[in-house]
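A quick aside before the break. I want you to see a complete sequence-to-structure record at least once, exactly as it would be stored in a machine-readable document. Don't worry about memorizing anything.
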Amino acid sequence: QLQLEESGGGLVQPGGSLRLSCAAHGRTPDNYAIGWFRQAPGKEREYISCISSSGGRTRYVDSVKGRFTISRDNAKSTVYLQMNTLKPEDTAVYYCAADPTMAPERCPTGIWEYDYWGQGTQVTVSS
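That is the input. The structure line, written in C-alpha cells, reads:
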C-alpha cells in the first residue's frame, strides 16, 4: 500500500516562505500524479496544485499562481511545494495525495480523483 507523508509545515510571518515535502513510502506505483490540497478551519478541502508523474505538467489554482511552485524528484519519491510570499489566508492544513495512473501527463484537480492521502501538515501564516 502506498503511504504518503507530508513535512515542512510550521509558523511563518506574512511574506515568508516554506517548502513542503510529500514523501511516498511502501508499495509505490511506477507512475502517479501528486496533488496538493489544503483545508482551513471551517472550510472545505480545496485543490491548490498538481504535478504529473513525469513532472512535465503542473497546474495551480489561481490564488497561488506565481507564489507556489510544485516539483518532484522521482529518484527520492518526493514531491515538493515551495511556497513564497505567504499570506494569512494561506493558513491551513496541507495535504498531498496520489493518483496512480498510466498517463504520464495526467494532473487531476478533483479530490475524488486521488486514491491515497497523507495525514497533513499545518501551515500557519501570522505575525
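Two observations worth writing down. The chain has no helices and eleven strands. The mean pLDDT is 95. We'll return to this after the break.
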